[in-house]
Fold:
Amino acid sequence: MEIYETLEEQAFRKEFRQWLVQYLPEVSADLHSLQDAKMDPESARRREFDRLLYRHGWAGLTWPREYGGRGGRLYQLLIFAEETARAQAPEVFNRLALGIVGPVLMRYGTEAQKSHYLPKMLASEDIWCQGFSEPNAGSDLAALSTRAIRKGSEFVVNGQKIWTTLGQYADYCFLLARTSPDKPKHRGITAFIMNMRQDGITVRPIRQINGSQEFNEVFINDAVISADQVIGDVDGGWDVAMTALSFERSTNFINRQVRLTEDLTRLLSYARAHREHLAGDLTEQIVDIAISVHSLRLTVLRHIAELENGDRIPGPENNASKVFWSETHQQLASLALAMAGEQPHDAEYSQWAFSYLSSLGESIYAGTNEIQRNIIAERGLGLPR
Ligand SMILES: Cc1cc2nc3c(=O)[nH]c(=O)nc-3n(C[C@H](O)[C@H](O)[C@H](O)COP(=O)(O)OP(=O)(O)OC[C@H]3O[C@@H](n4cnc5c(N)ncnc54)[C@H](O)[C@@H]3O)c2cc1C
Structure:
């Protein structure tokens, strides 16, 4: 199926593509010259790319102009993702800030919070993490036990977070903590902006199955948050958290879906190149995956159109896309790994191994696929619990 872009969209694509050709080599320059030498090289490269985008006015494509964004349409985010993937540019580093916390602050933040934090998010000056999950509160997020106790004009926070992506680099944490233990569990939680650069915060990286260390344990011991750093209402954090998760499952997945299409292209060229050496006929499996990838692309396009047509936050239909995307990626990476494993192990094999091991977390983060299925059943289809 052919998607016809408007003249404006075509012009946007052309301009961004040309920009990438001209400026992307700046990011691939000698890593020693990068400002963030204390970061691992890939993170440093990604942050440098964020800053380059910002300097040239490409950061916050869909953020309103009043907050420093480009005021663009959601479809431009898709073009952006396609062109960066095509040019093999890094993925956005400060993605939790740009994709989740920023839009949440626009909706729930005070004017002071917006004017202080949003510009620094865009510039990738402040890195943000999301402190929701705890050792005993993942799927059942409302069971979280990190406590925030009000003392005068401040809250004092104690507890532990886990699986905190980018925690080791973060300047701020979008934190959920319990403020009223006597209220029903969903009604006693507050969302905060917590400064990560203070005494009382200890971050311990966790090594993932793919070898990288993206997420962390975060220990919070008498950390202090000023009362004006509450997001929304005290005890109103559940609504804030649900809005955040709906952003995480929708706009953030535009980029992931595009990367999946790129992976399919790589898989197809690999299958063609090694046709004679592959055991058995893999055509049927490859065709099934290709159909899924194309269906997902059309579904994402439909979501974009729906979201652009009305001022509403993403709804339960995005849960289906999250399940479909993560499972398709796992099938694709698993098949590619099996194919590459039949050859002497080379760089291609290492790339697919990394891709496969990374894909395993995709059916877990932003809510596991079992939880997504529960939501589809109850809220989407109206089935009983
Ligand atoms: C790569 C990655 C990055 C992450 N980044 C962050 C981050 O930045 N910030 C953050 O706060 N968290 C983050 N997480 C954590 C993630 O949100 C949780 O892992 C997830 O919500 C699941 O929680 P859990 O690990 O405690 O598993 P559990 O909730 O203990 O679930 C264990 C198993 O039981 C199943 N299960 C649980 N309840 C039900 C139910 N009611 N019905 C059916 N099945 C059920 C689950 O599906 C799962 O299979 C990240 C996770 C990963 C993998």
Summary: The longest strand covers residues 216-226. The longest helix spans residues 283-309.
